[in-house]
Design goal:
The protein is mainly α and 271 residues long. It contains 11 helices and no strands.
């Protein structure tokens, strides 16, 4: 039985009034974020309304090919966004990043939906679409942080990287400190969130299920699995991205090709 209380359109409009608080603070301190916030809220509203409309049709059709097409479209959009946010060369990184995201999502989706939940129909829209979207969103966030840290470190510490090579280290050994930093920056927030889950915050997915009428125990089971799958898919996609990106980021002499890989100018003295 659905025990969810609906929100009328008028009451939803009243909810927007809460934005007056952060907007007033932004304006008072002259942050320049007022119009950015308003535009973000407008975009969010339009995009989510559009999502609501097409999800109605996707759930109704429940077609494997349509669902896979949706997933591929979202992967490509996420790859474009990731490349833009990380200031990487679009031509070089679109394919490797798309492949890495696809592999991370496919492996975790296959295990979660096929082994843990054991769906009779793997591409069941009500499971496949929201779970894949949630995983993809978190992969995007982690990849942006991790890739920025990785390539920023290589750009700023090329002398250190070359020093490792000159002392007999292989390229993989010389890159290990940079990968370590990228992993720490990308996953420390996730680890911290996982460690306090349920103590200082109730996650949105679990709260949504409870508000929708699910048993708290069932909601907790799903939340545990979602946290694990998000963590693993983000790790797989990020490591695969770095491994594939390295094939383009270095020449045959193991020299980092800054101007080829990154779209912004490298700082003076980085060569």
């Amino acid at each position: 039985m659905d025990t969810t209380f609906d929100i009328s359109w008028f009451n939803l409009a009243l909810g927007y009034l809460l934005l007056a608080i952060p907007l007033a603070i932004f304006r008072h301190y002259k942050t320049g974020l007022v119009w950015d916030t308003l535009w973000a809220a407008i975009r969010m509203t339009i995009q989510l309304l559009m999502v609501g409309v097409y999800l109605e049709y996707l759930f109704r059709w429940n077609n494997a090919w349509v669902n896979m097409g949706w997933a591929m479209a979202m992967i490509i959009v996420a790859a474009f966004t990731n490349i833009r946010r990380s200031k990487l060369n679009l031509r070089l990184f679109l394919l490797p990043l798309s492949v890495a995201l696809l592999a991370g999502l496919f492996l975790v989706d296959l295990w979660f939906l096929g082994v843990v939940i054991r769906l009779d129909y793997f591409f069941e829209s009500r499971y496949f679409i929201p779970i894949t979207g949630m995983l993809l969103g978190n992969c995007l966030k982690t990849n942006v942080i991790g890739l920025n840290a990785y390539f920023r470190g290589l750009r700023k510490q090329q002398i250190t990287y070359r020093y490792f090579l000159a002392n007999g280290a292989s390229r993989n050994e010389a890159l290990a400190p940079f990968i370590r930093t990228a992993l720490q920056e990308a996953f420390n927030p996730s680890i911290a969130t996982m460690a306090v889950m349920g103590l200082i915050a109730l996650p949105g997915t679990m709260t949504g299920q409870i508000l929708g009428g699910s048993s708290p125990v069932v909601a907790i089971k799903y939340q545990i699995m979602l946290m694990i799958t998000v963590f693993v898919s983000s790790m797989v996609s990020m490591m695969l991205t770095i491994m594939l990106a390295n094939r383009f980021a270095f020449d045959r002499f193991d020299v980092f090709r800054v101007q080829t890989v990154l779209t912004q100018k490298s700082p003076k003295g980085s060569h």
